[in-house]
Fold:
Amino acid sequence: MEKTWRWFGPDDRITLGMLRQIGVEGIVTSLHHIANGDVWTYDEVMKMKLFIESHGLRWSVVESLPVCEAIKYGGDDRDRLIANYIESLANLGKAGVKTVCYNFMPVLDWARTDLDYPNPDGTTNLYFNRAEFAYFDIFILKREGAQADYDEATLLRVDELRQKMDADSERRLVENIIVKTQGFVNGNISENDLDPVARFRELLDLYKGIDADALRANMKYFLEAIMPVCREYDINMCVHPDDPPLQILGLPRIVTCDADIEAFLEAVPDPHNGLTFCAGSLSAGAHNDVVSLARKYASRTHFVHARICNVLPGGDFKEASHLDPRLVEVVRIFERERPGVPMRVDHAPLMLGDGEMGYNAGYSFHGRMLALGMVSGMMAAINNESNTEKR
Ligand code: DNO
Structure:
C-alpha cells in the first residue's frame, strides 16, 4: 500500500518536511479554505498540488470533497450543488488527483464523547461512551422520542450519569460530540458557532421524513450523476463508512454493514464507485467482522484507513492498538490484493506531549508516527513472507 498521511494544509503544525522524514509517501488533504458546496477551481487545486510536490511528496487522496446536506436529504438546491461537485471533480481530474473520499452521513460526521480518555500507560485515546451520547441526545439536545432509541441498560447508566453531570461536563460533551470533532473535517458546526446545539437542531430538522430508503435513493442519484466525470478522468470515489456504524440521533445511516456496502456498490455498479475501507469505523459495530469485510470488498476499495476499535460491554467503544491482530490481517489482505492502494493510519493516541500541541482530535503527531511505524513494519514482514513463498 502507499503510505499516506492526513495533513490539514499549510497551517498544519505538522509540516510536509516532517512527514518526509518519517517515511510518508503521499498526502491526504482537502481544500479546507473553500466553503462546502463551492467549486474547487483548477488553479486552487494546482496550487495545493504543486505545494505538496515541492516537498517531494504527492497529493494521493482528497479527503474529503464534502457532499452538502442538500444533496443528502434531496433539497431544492441539490442539482446546482451536484453540478458544482462535478466541476470540482473535473478540475481534480485535470490536475491528476484521482482518489476522492467523501461520506454520506447526515448532519454528523464521526462521533466521539471523549477525546482524551486515559489509558493505563499514560497515553490518551478517543472514546465513545454510549450512555454519555444518550445523555447528550435526551437531556441536552432534548430530541423528541430520544429515550425510546436506547435500551434499558443504557438508560440506567444515563440515570447514574445525571447525578454527576454539571454545566461544565455538559459543555464538554457538546464540544466533543458536535464541535471539536466536526469543524476541522469541514463538518457542519465550527468553533465559531455561538449556539451549536440550536444550529444542530436545525440541521436535524432537515431530515424529517427522510428514512434509510430515501437516503439510499439520494446517494444513488448523486453517484449516477457524477459517474460520467469519474469515468472521463478515471477518478475513484470512495465513501467513508458511517462512524460509528450504528443508527444515531434518529438519523438514517446507510453505510454501516455488509448489506449496506453491497447495496450501494450494486446500486451503481461502476468500479469508480468504491469504498474507503475504514477498519476502525467498521469495527466499532459488534455486528461487523472486519477481516471478512476486507476480504470481500478489497477489489472495490480505493483507500484504506488503518485503525481498529474494541467494542466494550454496553456498546462503548475505544480505539485499540494498531498492532491488534485484526488490523494485521486487514493489512495483509490489502498489501497482497491491492498493493498500490493508498493507506493512512488514523486516530492514534496522544502521547509524549501531543496533548499540548492543539492538534485536531484524533490526529496527533507522535501517536500517528508510532502507528505508521507499526503498520509499515507489518507491510515489510508481509512482503517478505510473500517473497519467501515465491522462492
Ligand atoms: C474522522 C474521519 C472522517 C472522514 C470523513 C470522510 O476522523 O475519518 O471525518 O474524513 O467522514 O468524508
Observations:
- The mean pLDDT is 96.
